[in-house]
Amino acid sequence: MSVWLPTSPCTPEACAGHEGRTASVPHAVLRLTGAVALILLGILGAPPVRLLPAGPRHAVVRAWSAALVRAFGIRITVHGSPGRRGGRLLVANHISWLDIPLVAAVMPSRMLAKSDIRDWPVLGRLAGRAGTLFIERDRIRALPATVTTMTRALLAGDRVAVFPEGSTWCGRAQGAFRRAAFQSALDAKVPVQPVHLAYLRPDGSLAGAPAFVGDDPLTASLWRIARARGIRAEVTLLPRIPPGRHTDRRDLAAAAQRAVSDRAYERMPRTALPGQSTGPSATDRDSAKRPAASVHHWVSSSPAAASSFRTPS
Fold first, then answer.
1. Is the separation of the CB atoms in 164 and 253 below 8 Å?
2. Of 29, 166, 192, 201, which sits 20 to 30 A from 142 (CA to CA)?
3. Residue 130, SS3?
């Protein structure tokens, strides 16, 4: 593996467990059957849907994507407004493969994804037909061409969604937003839309089942999500960063990451004993913005990897 590729300290054993109610095996099988049926329907319907005008096309994509997420028993809550149509770079924290239909259920976009997804059974074919932009993560020389492709899509009025952490995290902490993708927004002079994603249990705490991290097999992730009950997906559309506010992609990436990190911090449950304040300490606020040793198994990373662009996965 190339040293510039992004990595996450999260592992399935540490981060992807499910606490709480579980669905019966027949119920889980029924969920998976419904999800597969929707995916096959999406593959067959993608070509004609892409011929529709933007408004009806987005409506169909939203409905289909929401149905796919709901097929796994996950409810969706949305905070914020999508605002006006037009080219926009959506940037979100990355937890699961479910993030892709979840974002599409709120704001249909052309996704930037690792080229490996093309080889996934069924899902890879669907991603290709949906207009996904693929990037070869092990070829850093391909980055300029990818940024150019993204810029063209944005100039054409498309929304492009990326996960600039470049690797999935469990949701308790997040990786750095790599800056290369933000160059496309600068070149196209379009706003950046920060988005915060969270999967929650009924009590509001973070749910582990949807996390797709480390070497977790896709089949194991599918089954774990199908068995989990009571999970809600929360999508928060944060204030857009208008074009021209930041002229450097480093500053633009940092501003977007601060917006997402601040929302993650706001979501952290805080309780206080009598006479104590619920206000956060500096340490609490810091832990919402960077990986914490208490919730992750750490892996080593080189300085080269830390300073490079994390391509979306």
1. yes
2. 192
3. coil
Q: What confidence tens digit (pLDDT) does each residue in 196-232 have?
A: 999 999 999 999 999 998 888 989 999 999 999 999 9
Answer whether 245's CB lies under 8 Å from 131's CB. no
Please, what sign has the CA dihedral across residues 246, 249, 253, 254? negative
How far apart, in whole angstroms, are the C-alpha atoms of residue 57 and residue 52? 5
Closest among 104, 111, 19 to 59, alpha carbons compared: 104
What is the C-alpha separation between 306 and 124, in angstroms, rounded? 29
pTM over 0.85: no
Mind listing the pLDDT tens digit for each residue in 126-168?
666 666 776 665 566 767 888 898 999 999 999 999 999 988 8
- Distance (Å, rounded) from C-alpha 251 to C-alpha 182? 10
pLDDT tens digits, one per residue of 240-252: 999 999 999 999 9
The CA-CA-CA angle for residues 298, 235, 17, to 5°, reads 40
- The Cα–Cα gap between 138 and 152 comes to 23
Contacts of 58 (CB under 8 A, 6+ apart): 108
Q: Contacts from 202-207 at CB under 8 Å and sequence distance 24+?
A: 202/20, 202/230, 202/232, 204/269, 205/269, 206/170, 206/171, 206/172, 207/18, 207/231
